[in-house]
Design a protein that fits this description.
The protein is of the alpha/beta class. The protein has four domains: about 10-360, Alpha-Beta Barrel (TIM Barrel), CATH 3.20.20.300; about 385-460 and about 645-785, Glycoside hydrolase family 3 C-terminal domain (Rossmann fold, 3-Layer(aba) Sandwich), CATH 3.40.50.1700; about 475-635, Jelly Rolls; about 800-920, Immunoglobulins (Immunoglobulin-like, Sandwich). Helices cover about 25% and strands about 25% of the residues. It is built from 19 helices and 39 strands. The strands form eight sheets. Strands 14, 15, 16, 18, 20, 21 and 24 form a seven-stranded antiparallel β-sheet that branches. Strands 1-2-3-4-6-9 form a six-stranded mixed β-sheet. A six-stranded mixed β-sheet has the order 10-28-27-26-11-12, sandwiched between helices. The longest helix has 18 residues, at about 345-360. The radius of gyration is 28 Å and the shape is globular. This is Beta-glucosidase. One of its GO terms (molecular function) is hydrolase activity, hydrolyzing O-glycosyl compounds.
Length: about 900
């Protein structure tokens, strides 16, 4: 079966007509309505020549169901049978009546099947489907960033096979993924959903992913097109300012690769504006770049409600509205009937949708839900995560752990009890889950070692995303409820904004961490909540919090862990007041937007309990999906150690080895305020490391967080977000069952003051996002600025040692014609005493005579070698690697001259160098 919407000579009249329509529409970029209408009339005149049929009842013998015909021919035949109303309906999402958040209803008269679209980043998110054995659960795979950390396109294929199979097994025809947005901004709340900061690595993961999804008769919808790199202002004012060369070489590179090599079926236009024009109505990015330059023949659908117009969007090339029916349902029908939108543009979009559906087999396959092979898919999740985990530091061979020499292990961290997961729309309800604590308890039983668990801190939640750099959330272990035993404060929730009348609910909350809406789990995404902290409940029939007014009063006591000056901080949106021993110390009222209000220093005495009252009302929504968020923070004297941290240090001191698990909470719709680890993680790590010099820190993040404690610990593992088999995968790496073969797909800064040019904290409240770094995204920016990251792109250690030598590089490539590839060859030797895996990375220096990155990844190879073995590694480079996009000429140009070639283990560790001469 054809795996992509290939052009077919049998449909030449229609396709030439479509080409005319696109060319003519482009000629109207001046914004003159007359030119656009003229283009539409011209297009209609051509397309009408094939509309010779009349609508009729669907039947098994309908000509478009003839599988001997090409996808193009079948699409043309079906288009002829459709009424205008049916065409418009195909272009308008109907999620209100469907089981999925993105949904196009079937047109039964013609046998057009539904398009049920799976919200998918690291698996299939629960959206109303129920299977007999697994209900609404699916395999929670590692996050896409973890997949990229494998540096292994074969693993991308394995991963995509599981996700695509489960898309079909849960009744979906379209996978809303993978993501391919370059992770240029470490503050971005959803960078873990994407692959990498580098276009080469991004493309190497995305292409086999798309190939495997569509080989299983599921349409891959690559997102988010394009230049989408932050959440703040994403649905309205966010305006990315970027030059065309940067768009082509960095931000559309994965789209080009997926179109060229995988016959990509669909693209999702993003929320943001690009150079002042919304993505879904941007002729420059959709018609000119995506269609004309990249050759895309599939269909474009909108992100959920990302469309802002009828005429401008359809002219630019958006084919399907999702999330709303504001512009492509009745509004589009009225526009066609009123003459403002030519029917030819509707036909163009419908052909694109139908052609893709036929090409990928949607009409010819059964998508009835079936059972998920739980164990088989869980095994793949584990294998991917084992290959993703990245060893960043391993002083004095602290790892792997020797089970024969360990009698006791301390596991520390509140989040060690549940596999780490993304929040928001990326959260997957797993078929089962194995945490780090679960897996180490299993291993402890096997080796006869005692496993001690100490919580140490509080579990992360969505409110932690707004923790500031200089403060941390007030920990539960210093809070006391009004009555009873335990930690936390007494919280009374009121079904109004004024704390009046009877409380609708009273319960103990561990922290003052109020968060409702998209990230906190309510109202629409309760099933997506990826934390142990429970979302705020619905009250007195108002429906989920966020649909009506709600206020909360926290009361109880605060116990100072040491004597000294404490500063309390209130941050979030809404109105709040904080009282200590009856005195008002914080007044966060009267202003919209995110606030950060601090108390004057409060002199507190160790062990004394102070009355604490916090009042909060969610009366000032940040945006519709974030109605209320509030966090109580503090900064403390240096010697203030909360009881939970002290208990963790004691557990570590009593054990042979301590494993500390720390993580961030990351989600769509919100960016992080700082790059530090939340929930007092830095202090916890330092305290445990001081108590036990054999401390291993497992960092579970998508962001390039800062690690000021890195020098204080002997071993650091980056876990990313590891999916439901995270615990088993970590145990396998910790005990050396598997060699750590992951490598960083993003750079890790040493501090927030040492970021490369162009990185802007999204919370600075500037909706204009200027990509001033140009091509120098990620590691390229660090190199250009001469700033050393704490851990570099491509970095990662093995439990064995490798050496590279005997570099040989083909010395000539032709700028045009002639030889268009060149090999880089190196000898790789495993000089250690155990089997292991290395990733050989090839970087190119600047192109001659044109502004270029100091280094850019051009190729890589992941190689497994036994102890003492050697292998010649060959990596092929082609002419495109030595080219740049000339925006004036609208073409790739290969300048002549000499280009440096570097081979090594990371963007900063390139021990071998050669050169290639590009000749005319």
């Amino acid at each position: 079966m054809t795996q992509g919407p290939a052009r077919d000579p049998g449909a030449r009249t229609v396709l030439e007509g479509e080409g005319l329509a696109m060319t003519s529409v482009r000629s109207g970029r001046s914004g003159r309505r007359g030119r656009r209408l003229a283009a539409g009339v011209a297009a209609a005149a051509v397309v009408i020549t094939v509309q010779t049929g009349s609508p009729g009842a669907a039947a098994p013998g309908d000509p478009w169901m003839n599988t001997a015909l090409s996808p193009d021919q079948r699409a043309v035949l079906l288009l002829q049978a459709m009424t205008l109303e049916e065409k418009v309906e195909l272009m308008a999402g109907d999620q209100g009546s469907g089981p999925a958040a993105f949904y196009s209803a079937p047109i039964e008269r013609l046998g057009i099947p539904e398009l049920s679209m799976a919200d998918a980043t690291d698996g299939i998110a629960s959206r109303g489907w129920v299977l007999p054995d697994t209900a609404n659960t699916a395999t929670a795979m590692p996050a896409t960033l973890a997949l990229a950390a494998t540096w292994d396109p074969a693993r991308a294929r394995d991963y995509a096979g599981v996700v695509a199979d489960e898309a079909r097994q849960t009744g979906h025809e379209v996978l809303l993924g993978p993501n391919s947005d370059p992770t240029r901004n470490p503050f971005w709340g959803r960078q873990a959903e994407s692959a990498s900061e580098d276009p080469q690595l991004n493309s190497a993961i995305v292409v086999p992913f798309v190939q495997e999804v569509q080989a299983r008769n599921v349409i891959a919808d690559l997102k988010h097109y394009t230049a989408y790199t932050q959440e703040r202002y994403r649905g309205g004012e966010q305006n990315v300012v970027v030059d065309e060369r940067t768009l082509r070489e960095v931000h559309t590179a994965a789209y080009e690769a997926a179109i060229r090599d995988a016959n990509l079926g669909s693209v999702m236009c993003s929320f943001n504006k690009i150079n002042g024009v919304y993505s879904c109505e941007n002729e420059s990015t959709l018609n000119e770049i995506l269609r004309e330059q990249l050759g895309f023949q599939g269909f474009v659908l909108t992100d959920f409600g990302a469309i802002h117009s009828t005429e401008a969007s359809i002219v630019a090339g958006t084919d399907m509205e999702t999330g709303t029916r504001a512009f492509y349902a009745d509004a589009l029908l009225d526009a066609v009937n009123g003459g403002s939108v030519p029917v030819a543009l509707v036909d163009r979009s419908v052909l694109r949708i139908l052609r893709t559906m036929f090409a990928i087999g949607i009409f010819d396959n059964d998508y009835t839900p079936t059972a998920i092979p739980v164990e088989e898919h869980g095994a793949v999740a584990r294998e991917v995560q084992e290959d993703a985990i990245t060893l960043l530091k391993n002083d004095a061979a602290a790892l792997p752990l020797d089970g024969d020499a360990i009698d006791s292990i301390a596991v520390v961290g509140a989040d060690a009890t549940i596999p780490s997961a993304l929040g928001g729309s990326a959260y997957i309800q797993p078929t089962y889950e194995v945490s780090l604590l679960d897996a180490l308890r299993e291993r402890g039983q096997e080796i006869g070692a005692q496993v001690r668990y100490a919580q140490g801190n509080d579990p992360v939640n969505g409110a932690n995303m707004i923790e500031t750099l200089d403060m941390t959330a007030v920990p539960s272990s210093v809070l006391r409820p009004e009555r009873g035993i335990g930690d936390g404060l007494t919280a009374r929730y009121y079904p109004n904004a004024t704390w009046s009348g009877a409380a609708g609910l009273t319960r103990t909350e561990h922290q003052v961490a109020y968060d409702v809406g998209f990230i906190g789990g309510q109202p629409a995404f309760a099933s997506l909540y990826g934390s142990q902290v429970q979302p705020t409940p619905a009250l007195d029939g108002l429906g989920p919090a966020g649909n009506g007014d709600q206020s909360v009063r926290y009361t109880g006591g605060l116990v100072a862990p040491s004597t000294g000056a404490y500063v309390l901080g209130a941050t979030g949106w809404g109105d709040a007041k904080v009282y200590l021993d009856g005195g008002l110390i914080i007044d966060m009222t009267g202003e919209d937007g995110r606030r950060d209000v601090r108390s004057e220093p409060q002199q507190l005495t160790a062990g004394q309990e102070y009355d604490l009252v916090v009042e909060y009302t969610q009366n000032r929504p940040l945006v519709g999906l974030q109605p209320g968020t509030f966090l109580l923070q503090w900064s403390t004297p240096a010697d203030a150690v909360p009881p939970s941290v002290a208990e963790a240090a004691d557990a570590a001191a009593a054990s042979d080895v301590a494993v500390v698990f720390v993580r961030t909470y990351e989600s769509e719709e919100r960016d992080m305020v700082s790059l530090k680890l939340p929930q007092n993680a830095d202090q916890l790590i330092r305290a445990v490391a001081a108590a036990n010099p054999r401390t291993v820190v497992v960092v579970s993040t998508g962001a390039g967080v800062i690690m000021p404690w890195a020098e204080a610990v002997p071993a650091v593992l980056q876990n990313y977000f590891g999916g439901q088999e995270e615990g088993h995968a970590l145990a396998a790496i910790l005990f050396g069952d598997e060699d750590p073969s992951g490598r960083l797909p993003v750079s890790y800064p040493s501090s927030e003051d040492a970021l490369p040019a162009g990185v802007q904290n999204p919370w600075l409240d500037d909706p204009d996002v200027e990509f001033t770094e140009g091509l120098n995204v990620g590691y390229r920016g660090y190199l250009a600025a001469g700033v050393a990251p704490q851990f570099a792109f491509g970095e990662g250690l093995s439990y064995t040692q490798f050496e590279m030598d005997r570099l040989r590089v083909g010395n000539v490539i032709r700028a045009t014609g002639g030889q268009d590839t060149v090999d880089a060859r190196v000898r790789l030797r495993n000089v250690g005493d155990r089997d292991g895996t290395e990733v050989v990375q090839v970087y190119l220096g600047p192109l001659p005579g044109v502004a270029s990155p100091l280094r850019k990844l051009a190729g890589f190879a992941k190689v497994e070698l036994g102890a003492g073995d050697r292998q010649q590694v060959r990596i092929e480079l082609d002419r495109r690697d030595f080219s740049y996009w000339d925006a004036d000429a609208d073409q790739w140009v290969t300048p002549t001259g000499q280009v440096a070639v570097y081979i090594g283990r990371s963007s900063v560790d390139t021990e071998l160098a050669g050169a290639v001469r590009v000749r005319p």
